[in-house]
């Protein structure tokens, strides 16, 4: 491969985002899950050439940037979040030159590219961990991880009571008697971030991908790198229920912020406004805001927003708190409804009725895209894909599913490969009709494919395209930092966004009935059919409208 230092996005790229300063403040970022986006070679697994070939689709969709989940060398114990070599592409996804091509092609189309970095843990096949195992107790290589003797007379009990996020103890015992810490699967040993070599290694990994030209990083488990001194017991049997709600000694420790200050300096040393977003599940948006103070990262995912239900008062409260918290640190708020770890929002919001779920999902999208800040889309939501709930156990791959004996861990259902075209599975996901796909798609996805929706003005795909095109036109969609709530009936949210470039009103009816309100302006876009009168308008149940005011 020709290794060359690319300035992130060429200044003359055909994108509005390219011309803007601090593009990440209001960018719409589309998450590509490489396994399931597009399969270029027909082996049933998505790959980098498949993604590159489909980049024009994303440009046409109207997003500003793409975030790629991990495609690094990995035994795939956790779908690539178990990295064996941070500088290599897994052959299942392609080669390093394929990654280089993808980044260059994206830039040529005016799309930025963010890649995942997984610093909390690696794979048990990573060469450091293999060496630590090989050299045995007392080896300096063990200090790069959290190895400890067990408790009890014969050391047969784990060193503390921490539980893995995927269920079961967070410790595994190796043949020589030591235990090692893994907050996720046993195949994902946690790094010891008190060790200088770990810092040095990740500084180098960041530079490797920045040199290749990526525009930034999504930082996996950004809240987990530092553990409380002495690894104290928690004294609670179902820790997974505490996560994101209450402080635990392995997440959101203050020490993590030093790492991000160090990383910010690296990002700032590159031209092209490289940016990073923290995947940090913290108990409050105020704690999340700490990750994006001016000398730390640029964005943090807003999981409190994602987990808020279809409830006007609750949404208004989380929007207000998010804006207050992010404005206080001069960072943009971010908004997200779906990703590869959660039930797709068209199903999550459905309350058992798929048609209602889709109505609400489309309305939720208009709400999200009208808010000040940056928005994340998850592949397939632009097609209105539902969660696949009927996957047989034998095809599932999510380690959380197995470690919790199927009680939880339903993440395969949102990872089913995308339908692009055709009458038969894999619906254009791979090059051969009737060919393989690593998870089976439901037959009903024939009608949800890109080809089936393209050109149909009532389709969810065309709705997303209109919404994203409008967002590029109107600075009041996404731009600025504030919103003004307007009087509205119970169960209805209405707010005005005023920016130097224009004013816009967004109305969301979260109730099960149509609601009549005074017409706020001229309709820019609505998630359901609308017949506005001059003075009054009936806004259908579970729908949203953008008005130019
Ligand atoms: C968060 C990722 O999004 C998830 O898919 C993964 O299992 C865990 N981090 C562990 O890396």
Plain-language structure description:
The N terminus is likely disordered. It is globular, with a radius of gyration of 23 Å. Helix 3 runs parallel beside helix 4 and helix 6 packs parallel to helix 7. The chain has an eight-stranded parallel beta sheet with strand order 11-10-9-5-2-1-13-12. The protein contains 15 helices and 20 strands. It folds into three domains: 377 residues, TIM Barrel (Alpha-Beta Barrel), CATH 3.20.20.80; 55 residues, Oligo-1,6-glucosidase, Domain 2 (Oligo-1,6-glucosidase, domain 2), CATH 3.90.400; 67 residues, Sandwich (Immunoglobulin-like), CATH 2.60.40. Helix 8 links the parallel strand 10 and strand 11. With 549 residues, the protein is α/β, with parallel strands linked by helices. Bound molecules: 1-deoxynojirimycin. 1-deoxynojirimycin (NOJ) binds next to loops.
């Amino acid at each position: 491969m020709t290794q060359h230092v690319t300035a992130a996005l060429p200044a003359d790229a055909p994108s509005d985002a390219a011309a803007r300063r601090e593009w990440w403040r209001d960018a719409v970022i589309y998450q590509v899950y490489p396994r399931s986006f597009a399969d270029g070679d027909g082996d049933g697994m998505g790959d980098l050439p498949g993604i590159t070939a489909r980049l024009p689709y994303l440009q046409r969709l109207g997003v500003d940037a793409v975030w790629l989940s991990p495609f690094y060398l990995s035994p795939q114990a956790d779908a690539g979040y178990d990295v064996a070599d941070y500088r290599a592409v897994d052959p299942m996804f392609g080669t390093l030159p394929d990654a280089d091509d993808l980044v260059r092609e994206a830039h040529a189309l005016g799309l930025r590219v963010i890649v995942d970095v997984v610093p909390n843990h690696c794979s048990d096949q990573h060469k450091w961990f293999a060496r630590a195992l090989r050299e045995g107790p007392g080896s300096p290589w063990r200090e790069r991880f959290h190895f400890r003797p067990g408790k009890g007379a014969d050391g047969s009990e784990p060193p503390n009571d921490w539980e893995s996020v995927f269920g079961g103890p967070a410790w595994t015992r190796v043949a020589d008697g030591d235990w090692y810490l893994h907050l996720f699967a046993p195949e994902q040993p946690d790094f010891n971030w008190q060790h200088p070599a770990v810092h040095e290694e990740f500084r180098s990994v960041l530079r490797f991908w920045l040199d290749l030209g990526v525009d930034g990083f999504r930082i996996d488990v950004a809240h987990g790198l530092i553990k409380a001194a002495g690894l104290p017991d928690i004294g609670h049997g179902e820790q997974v229920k505490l996560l994101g709600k209450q402080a635990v000694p392995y997440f959101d420790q203050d020490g993590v912020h030093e790492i991000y200050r160090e990383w910010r300096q690296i990002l700032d040393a590159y031209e092209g406004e490289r940016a990073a977003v923290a995947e940090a599940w913290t108990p409050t948006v105020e704690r999340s805001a700490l990750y994006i103070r001016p000398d730390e990262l640029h964005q943090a995912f807003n999981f409190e927003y994602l987990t808020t239900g279809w409830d006007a008062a609750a949404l208004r409260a989380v929007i207000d708190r998010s804006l207050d918290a992010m404005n206080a640190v001069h960072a943009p708020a971010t908004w997200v409804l779906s990703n590869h770890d959660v039930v797709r929002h068209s199903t999550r919001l459905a309350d058992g009725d798929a048609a209602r779920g889709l109505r609400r999902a489309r309305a939720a999208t208009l709400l999200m895209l009208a808010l000040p800040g940056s928005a994340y889309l998850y592949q397939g939501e632009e097609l209105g894909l539902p969660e696949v709930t009927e996957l047989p156990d034998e095809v599932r791959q999510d380690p959380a599913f197995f470690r919790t004996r199927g009680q939880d861990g339903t993440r395969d259902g949102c990872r089913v490969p995308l339908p692009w075209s055709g009458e038969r599975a894999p619906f254009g996901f791979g090059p051969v009709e009737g060919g393989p796909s690593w998870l089976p798609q439901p037959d009903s996805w024939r009608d949800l494919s890109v080809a089936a929706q393209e050109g149909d003005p009532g389709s969810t795909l065309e709705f997303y395209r209109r919404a994203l095109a409008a967002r590029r036109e109107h600075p009041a969609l996404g731009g600025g930092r504030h919103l003004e709530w307007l009087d509205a009936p119970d169960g209805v949210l209405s707010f005005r966004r005023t920016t130097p470039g224009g004013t816009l009103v967004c109305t969301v009816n979260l109730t099960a009935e149509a609601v009549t309100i005074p017409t706020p302006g001229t309709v820019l876009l609505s998630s359901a059919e609308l017949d506005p009168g001059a003075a009054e308008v009936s806004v259908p149940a579970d729908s949203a409208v953008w008005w130019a005011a």
